[in-house]
């Protein structure tokens, strides 16, 4: 089955001076131009190509990977606005992606960068984008457990912190008090379920919770110390950015963890860093 707006494995039918014709099944033969084709295209074999509708509403093929395929989110720049809606650059040179006015949470303007979900409009069959995400997320109750690791997509900044899409399915919130490192709309990262509230809302954390979190960090610190000859130039006086760059954790958690390692006699905290003890 051919999926427009996604990569497909298509059989190469024949070669022409300007490219190759691929078997688009119900859509007929589809041209893949030589400027977009890989070096190993052979007649009778399959090749991977992204299919989309060109400016003449004909199915076209390219090997260029768009910022987001149908069913995915991506950060895109608004190239222009007309009476139909806003057009964003989704990585396909020949065709910008339309976000109709009805699919905009707020009116978009040229030059703006926004997070976009790409989908196929059932009525027209066209590939379009939307900044209204709710209808594409799962509204059934979430079945997550505390400390479960999940994939996060930062979707929106708010007065409370950052709203994130969890595993492409549910909304969650990272409160400002739990934010460390640099977050921005469109960033993907791993996170953890902090709690699922009685009203179904989900609180998120960027690091494991409780003792388990500190145990994991202890192992990371000791392992890196061993790799670096027993010394690291970070301690409880280091900046949050310096700590995050090494361990992807908050300064508070780092301080508690090295404090525990010091009490166990595993490290020495010096004025310019931390050092393994002789026993380690």
Automatic annotation (TrEMBL):
Task: Please provide an example of a Pfam family that matches this protein in its UniProt record.
Answer: S1_2
* Stored InterPro entries: CvfB_fam (IPR014464), CvfB_S1_st (IPR039566), CvfB_WH (IPR040764), NA-bd_OB-fold (IPR012340), S1_domain (IPR003029), WH-like_DNA-bd_sf (IPR036388)
Q: Where is the S1 motif domain?
A: 69-132, 145-207
Q: Cite the GO molecular-function annotations of the record.
A: nucleic acid binding
Stored PANTHER family: CONSERVED VIRULENCE FACTOR B (PTHR37296:SF1)
Q: What family is reported?
A: Belongs to the CvfB family.
The entry's protein name is: S1-like domain-containing RNA-binding protein
Source lineage: Bacteria, Pseudomonadati, Pseudomonadota, Gammaproteobacteria, Vibrionales
């Amino acid at each position: 089955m051919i999926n427009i707006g996604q990569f497909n494995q298509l059989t190469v039918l024949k070669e022409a001076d300007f490219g190759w014709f691929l078997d688009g099944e119900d859509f007929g033969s589809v041209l893949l131009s030589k400027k977009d084709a890989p070096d190993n295209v052979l007649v009778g074999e399959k090749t991977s190509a992204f299919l989309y509708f060109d400016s003449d509403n004909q199915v076209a093929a390219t090997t260029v990977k768009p910022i987001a395929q149908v069913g995915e989110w991506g950060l895109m720049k608004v190239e222009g606005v007309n009476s139909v809606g806003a057009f964003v650059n989704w990585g396909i040179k020949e065709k910008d992606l339309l976000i109709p006015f009805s699919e905009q949470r707020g009116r978009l303007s040229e030059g703006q960068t926004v997070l976009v979900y790409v989908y196929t409009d059932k009525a027209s069959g066209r590939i379009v984008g939307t900044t209204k995400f709710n209808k594409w997320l799962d509204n059934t109750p979430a079945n997550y457990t505390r400390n479960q690791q999940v994939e996060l997509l930062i979707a929106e900044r708010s007065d409370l912190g950052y709203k994130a899409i969890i595993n492409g399915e549910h909304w969650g919130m990272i409160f400002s008090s739990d934010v460390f490192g640099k977050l921005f709309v469109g960033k993907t990262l791993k996170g953890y379920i902090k709690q699922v509230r009685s009203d179904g809302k989900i609180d998120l954390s960027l690091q494991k919770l409780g003792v388990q979190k500190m145990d994991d960090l202890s192992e990371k610190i000791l392992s890196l110390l061993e790799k670096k000859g027993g010394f690291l130039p970070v301690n409880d006086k280091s900046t949050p950015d310096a700590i995050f760059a090494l361990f992807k954790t908050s300064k508070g958690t780092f301080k508690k963890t090295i404090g525990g390692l010091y009490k166990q006699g595993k490290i020495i905290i010096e004025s310019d860093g931390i050092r393994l003890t002789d026993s380690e």
